[in-house]
Write a structure and sequence with these properties.
By secondary structure, this protein is of the alpha/beta class. Bound molecules: iron/sulfur cluster (SF4). Iron/sulfur cluster binds next to loops.
């Protein structure tokens, strides 16, 4: 299989089948904590990195070969190797997967393209969007997420606010916390103000538990994570 991975059982999604919308890592960020490691370049061009029809063919064949597992799935999750919204076929793909499988669709996105109305439009038929927002301070954003030069933090935030207004499904905002980078309480207070504007259904706090590919990138300790959860209020949970 080229595009399918899993199924994966997770606490937040149950049993889900992952779909990558590209064959290699294609991303407009180069996050210090990325599980795929750094590929040394970021890409901002939206195009067909993998054709929806090809991905659908693979999904159909997986379903035929794994009827039992297919019945147990709770979600099909679009994420994979990089940023799925860079693939311009994403809207059509969501439509087709829903029609074929009747399953719920989750999209895991780094939020960078949500300022573009066409990208938001393509996501409207998903059931769950898990966008990430690691920083609301430009210097911290650059330090952790190392964005392509064309990415604007204010457009990401405005895009998230607009998505909430247009999208009827659930939004679980993920914040990846890195020790000494975005976990300062002053930054968390600023983040809280922005999250209040975005109004997600949940705030999911994540932090690397193992050492990352990059040197000097560490997860946040349990006590500090708990403190941050408290500051962000009832919608926040540590995942
Ligand atoms: S957005 Fe995701 S895929 Fe892209 S660099 Fe960051 S962690 Fe990796």
């Amino acid at each position: 299989m080229k595009y399918i991975y899993g199924p994966i059982k997770s606490r937040r999604l149950g049993l889900s089948l992952g779909l990558s919308l590209s064959l290699d890592k294609v991303c407009d960020l180069d996050c210090v904590y990325c599980q795929w490691g750094s590929v040394g370049k970021t890409v901002l061009e939206r195009k067909v990195y993998a054709k929806a029809d090809e991905i659908i063919r693979e999904l159909k064949s997986w379903t035929r070969e794994n009827p039992q597992a297919a019945q147990e799935l709770k979600f099909v999750t679009l994420s994979g190797l990089g940023e799925p919204t860079l693939n311009t076929d994403i809207g059509g793909l969501i439509d087709q997967i829903k029609n074929i499988t009747g399953l719920k669709i989750a999209v895991i996105t780094n939020s960078t393209l949500l300022g573009d109305p066409a990208v938001r439009q393509g996501l409207l038929k998903a059931d769950l969007i898990v966008p990430s927002l690691d920083a609301v301070d430009l210097e911290i954003f650059k330090q952790i997420d190392r964005p392509h030069a064309g990415i604007k933090l204010n457009e990401i935030i405005d895009g998230l606010v607009a998505l909430r207004k247009e999208f009827d499904g659930k939004i679980w905002l993920e914040v990846m916390l890195i020790a000494g980078m975005n976990d300062g309480l002053r930054h968390i207070e600023e983040l809280k103000k922005v999250i209040w504007r975005i109004n997600p259904d949940k705030i999911q706090l994540n932090s690397p538990v193992r050492s990352t590919a990059e040197k000097n990138v560490f997860g946040v300790g349990k006590a500090k994570l708990e403190k941050i959860r408290e500051v962000l209020g009832d919608k926040a949970e540590i995942i």
